[in-house]
Design brief:
Blueprint (H helix, E strand, L loop, with lengths): L1 E9 L4 H8 L4 H6 L5 E8 L6 E8 L2 H10 L1 H11 L3 E10 L4
Antiparallel strand pairs: 1-3, 1-4, 2-3
Length: about 100
């Protein structure tokens, strides 16, 4: 299992738009939904810091994720560029697997 964790600081005036765009039924979920190897997206908001979010994208493997990105590069870049208007900062925290 691959879990990619992202950290975002949403723009204060775009909180609702950010949540709509990045939640499981938003734009990214729509792109990923039917992809082989895609499992889920989880959007989490910080309870103490307004506008701070963590997103966990789950895939069956890193290979499945990387293949999806190659096959859908134009759509992936387009969504990423459109999302930039919604946040002040984006950071890939890391790529993780579950410990058995």
């Amino acid at each position: 299992m691959l879990v990619i964790v992202w950290e975002y600081q949403a723009r204060p005036d775009r909180i609702e738009d950010f949540e709509s765009y990045y939640r499981p039924d938003g734009a990214w979920g729509g792109l990923f939904r039917d992809a082989p190897g895609f499992v889920s997206i989880t959007l989490m908001k910080d309870l103490r810091t307004t506008g701070r979010y963590m997103i966990a994208d789950r895939w069956t493997s890193e290979a499945a994720y990387e293949e999806f990105k190659r096959a859908h590069a134009a759509q992936y870049v387009d969504l990423a560029m459109r999302g930039e208007r919604l946040y002040q900062a984006e950071h890939e925290v890391g790529r993780f697997d579950f410990v058995d």
